[in-house]
Design a protein that fits this description.
The structure is a single chain. By secondary structure, this protein is an alpha/beta fold. The protein is built from ten helices and 15 strands. Strands 1, 2, 3, 4, 5, 6, 7, 8, 9, 10 and 11 form an eleven-stranded mixed β-sheet that branches. Strands 12-13-14-15 form a four-stranded antiparallel β-sheet, covered by helices on one side. A hairpin with an 8-residue loop joins strand 14 and strand 15. Helix 2 runs parallel beside helix 8. It is globular and about 60 Å long.
Length: 440
């Protein structure tokens, strides 16, 4: 069987409860018919888990390794060493070595210096922003001083060439960027389909990251404000990519994945929702960990399937590498597990039972089966109690809001959870973690 095309769309800070297929949509003033239809055509995961914010999740996706290992713990200002060191092997590098054409259109956030741009890390071409979206506010902020803060830019690059500045990333550019990303993505798919070359399209959209501002064509569309207008636009952009795949006649040859990098925004007026789950990104609550995930591949992934089985973002690295026939790096721990049998319906259960969840250097929580053990307690950002003398344990099936600590009745859960922690710590001793800001 020929390797499939892979389309991976990652929304930015799209909470579990925003989309219609996850109980939101029209209830949020923003119907999402295109993404809802995509969910009906494939597999919808209710328990897909990510990291606490943008840099950690994107590093986990690209490396298959927990951020504590790679030093990708948080976003830092422009020009400082950040993102993945060149020692890390990226998903794009693995797929490129298998003959895939590779492209990144969107938000990178894994390095903003020569040697760490997407075109240096396995992508044939890229267009987008090297860091984050809130920088689009810089130039319109009262008191902004370009002599001490870098002006943000949209950039582009090609493999083997220096990346270059395209234009200033300001509020006008922010409104238009997702439309531009889709145009680049469409052209990329057309070129490589015509050349009969399998492709990996990585499309990390900018919506719904703050400032959550819609394209002018969508401004006022819902009557429910900028956030709802932006969500309707995001749904439309995903639909444009779906339509292009259909127009090219490659749906049966394409593994199409849509997910989010983090839980919902918590900053007013752009605050989102995680539906039944509590919390936002930058916490260890389920509202931070669980995000939307939809996968479609006609003939391989059965339509109309929903699962609450636990999957982690690092699993995308391992699974997509396996789908492409790419061997994994053998000289380092890979935390992602191969989920092909689960995705393709060959087994009902996920290949994973749990994972450790860090925020920066702190082990905040561990998920295992239906249980969650918190070592720190911070249900709201910047309102934490700090490290707990006695951890809190929740059963997520019976207590999805994480309101009633039941450790006193279930201390047996400490055994399997702490064995996971011990095994991970031993692995980190054998293969020392990369410190944040490590230069190449």
């Amino acid at each position: 069987m020929n390797p499939p095309n892979i389309v991976l769309i990652v929304a930015d800070n799209l909470g579990w409860g925003e989309l219609g297929c996850y109980g939101g949509g029209a209830l949020r003033g923003a119907p999402t018919p295109r993404i809802d239809a995509l969910a009906r055509q494939g597999l919808l995961l209710q328990n897909f888990n990510v990291e606490s914010d943008c840099v950690p999740t994107r590093s986990a996706l690209m490396s298959g390794r927990h951020p504590i290992r790679t030093g990708c713990l948080q976003s830092v200002p422009p020009g400082l060493p950040q993102g993945l060191t060149r020692w890390e092997r990226t998903l794009a590098e693995l797929l490129s070595a298998q003959g895939y054409a590779t492209a990144h259109f969107g938000k990178w956030h894994l390095g903003d210096i020569e040697g760490r741009y997407p075109s240096d890390r396995g992508f044939d071409e890229w267009y987008g922003i090297p860091r984050t979206t809130d920088e689009s506010q810089f130039t319109s902020t009262v008191g902004f001083d370009p002599s001490v803060a870098d002006i943000p830019h949209i950039m582009r690059g090609r493999r083997g060439e220096p990346s270059e500045i395209v234009k200033v990333y300001d509020l006008d550019s922010r409104r238009g960027i997702d439309a531009e990303l889709v145009e680049h993505a469409q052209a990329f798919m057309q070129r490589h389909h015509a050349a009969r070359k399998p492709f990996f399209l990585y499309l990390p959209l900018v919506h719904l990251h703050f400032p959550t501002l819609p394209h002018p064509d969508f401004a006022g569309h819902t009557g429910a404000g900028d956030f709802a207008d932006s969500m309707v636009e995001m749904d439309h952009r995903v639909g444009q990519i779906v339509d292009e795949v259909e127009r090219l006649g490659i749906a049966n040859d394409t593994l199409f994945i849509f997910c989010s990098d983090n839980g919902p925004e918590f900053r007013a007026p752009y605050r989102g929702t995680a539906g039944p789950w509590r919390g936002t990104y930058h916490t260890a609550m389920e509202g931070s960990l669980r995000v939307p995930f939809i996968a479609r591949w006609p003939g391989r992934i059965a339509p109309g399937r929903t699962s609450n089985e636990l999957v982690h973002v690092t699993d995308l690295f391992t699974t997509l590498a396996a789908v492409a026939g790419a061997p994994l790096p053998a000289d380092r721990p890979i935390d992602g597990v191969d989920q092909r049998a689960f995705l393709f319906g060959e087994q009902e259960k996920s290949a994973r039972e749990g994972f450790l969840f860090y925020i920066k250097n702190d082990l905040r929580a561990v998920k295992w089966r239906d249980w969650k053990l918190h070592f720190y307690w911070e249900p709201e950002v910047n309102e934490g109690k700090g490290k707990l003398e006695s951890p809190y344990l929740f059963n997520l099936t019976r207590d999805p809001k994480e309101e009633t600590d039941v450790l006193v009745f279930n201390t047996w859960v400490l055994g399997p959870v702490l064995r996971m922690v011990q095994a991970f710590n031993k692995s980190c001793q054998q293969f020392p973690n990369t410190p944040p800001g490590q230069p190449d």
